[in-house]
Amino acid sequence: MADGSAKPTPPKRPEFERVLPPMAAIGDVARPLSPFERLINQTGVRRILIVLALAALWQAYGAWLSNPLIFPSFGAVLDALWESILTRGLLWRAWASIVVLAKGYVIGVVLALAITALAVSTRVGSDLLSTLTAMFNPLPAIALLPIALLWFGLGETSLVFVLVHSVLWPLALNTHSGFTAVSDTLRMAGRNYGLTGLRYVAGILIPAAFPSILAGLKIAWAFAWRTLIAAELVFGVSSRSGGLGWFIFENRNELNIPEVFAGLVMVILIGLAMEGVVFRAIEARTVRLWGMQR
Amino acid sequence: MTPLLDVSGVTLQYKTPEHLVTATYQVDFQVFPSDRFVVLGPSGCGKSSLLKAVGGFLAPVEGEIRLSGEVVEKPGPDRMMVFQEFDQLPPWKTVKENVMFPLTASGRLRGREAEDRARSYIAKVGLGGFVDAYPHMLSGGMKQRVAIARAMAMEPAILLMDEPFAALDALTRRKMQEELLGLWDEVRFTVLFVTHSIEEAIIVGSRILVLSPHPGRVKAELDADDFDHRAVGGEAFQRLQTRIHDMLFADRVEAHG
Question: Are residues B175 and B237 in the same domain?
């Protein structure tokens, strides 16, 4: 506005009102998606396509390298996997691992919930949790194995002990951060209902923090699975049989490299099934249904 | 006639990491059954703190709050709160479950009875078609309707509303004010309503408590029983509005002068 002499004014225009025609004249307001669009919208379909692409890449590299002792082709590994399932009881080995894992996981989850419930209800509990997670979360569970073996001997109890350690801290950390992120309004609403103590934790805090808890459960599951396979690799025979880790270890010693890969593929398959089936189902029934997660 | 809610000499303070803030200083007022009692004031007058104190979330450092003769000490379902924030509804419960939640959590009703009560109040706020929807599927105005239905279904001694329409757009807000007045006409509940809008206070309230800011002290208590939306342009309405405006404006001059 340097000169300020001619201030711009908007032009005067005539007013008008319209009688709107009915919507039918406009045509499509909503159109169903084509079959291809609907197929590609399925997360499962997209993920299977990715897995297939990776498998093709593997097969191509294996064929190009043609050194089965270092890197067997995908086809050879599939053969070995099938063979191991039929004749060497691979599924049974996997089951043995899963049973041990489930015990450690369940105990870890219960302990984590108990310790976080304590942490949200008292200040001492909160300090205790923060200090303990800061101390133990970075400590690899596998490093406790020698001590566990000393205390509990060569057996399942030692495995369950290290599993609990690997589950407890990441889950407690996630659950606690989830609890502290619950909005004041929701907290007041809960207390307004007259909820106190455990009923308040179960009725308000746990569902409100469920996205964080679920993330913690996923991380804890991955930590536990890793720890278990590593522990089995280190000292092998757990109870009578030995799980997947021991299967991998045995076959490496005998230079059955495709079988080693078959064991690894089994570990991956179980991981994929847990993520793609179990956790996805929980998500669909909870956080997605509630609109807390996209 | 004895008051339903008796607030006498209430001073409220809260701590921030650096300061001890006095939100209200020796505030007195009395709410009688079926009052639409509005607490009006600019931001910083402690009106929300006052409502939280009545709700039992904040203990007065001086004075006392009595509801039907009993001293208020902790939160309870006889004083249902409606908050401004849309996240006051637990997102993991459907509309119906949300309205039933306080009924069952407080042990007031259970099963079939709780469900029937919930359905009837959901219908009252005009959400009969949305009983099984989750909160994230609803608009802001609908969420506030659910919160109102949830509070009313408890049939509390007093309904506490903390700027319940402040986060809504102007058109929805007006509609919600009309609906609230309609519900009051039907049920004749007692409500303590906090707002910073003079117009809203005059329309919604039957009685207006005007608070001055920093800290909140009682400036005036006015009658506003005769006004609804139809009165907005009228002369009496304008006069009351100007009167309240001057009271609040005078404070601002003092504060800056």
Answer: yes
Phi, psi dihedrals of residue A92, rounded to the nearest 5°: -65, -40
| For A200, nearest residue in chain B (alpha carbons) | B105
How many domains does the structure of chain B reveal?
Answer: 2
Give A-chain residues touching B57 at CB under 8 angstroms. Answer: 188, 191
Instruction: Say if residue B241 is in the same domain as residue B218.
Output: yes
Same domain, yes or no, for B94 and B180? no
Interface residues from chain A to B (CB-CB < 8 Å): 183, 185-186, 188-189, 191-195, 199, 203-204, 207-208, 210, 286, 289-292
pLDDT for B164-208, tens place per residue? 898 888 888 888 898 889 889 888 899 999 999 998 999 999 999
Report if residue B96 sits inside a domain: yes
Write out pLDDT tens, residues B128-146. Answer: 889 999 999 998 889 999 9
- Cα–Cα distance measured from residue B249 to residue B257, given in angstroms and rounded to the nearest whole number: 12
* Interchain CB distance below 8 Å, A286 and B92: yes
d(CA B32, CA A102) in angstroms, rounded, equals 60
Same domain, B171 and B252: yes
B14 within some domain = no
CB B198 within 8 A of CB B177: no
Domain that holds residue B132: 87-155
Q: A72: cis peptide before it, omega within 30°?
A: no
User: Residue length, chain A?
Assistant: 294
Residues of chain A contacting residue B140, judged by C-beta atoms under 8 Å apart: none
**Which residue segments constitute the domains of chain A, with CATH numbers given?**
69-184+210-285 (1.10.3720.10)
| Nearest CB to B87 within list A185, A210, A289 | A185
Interface test with A, best of B80, B81, B92 (most A CBs within 10 A): B92
Tell me which chain B residues have a C-beta less than 8 angstroms from the C-beta of A289.
134
This prediction's pTM: 0.81
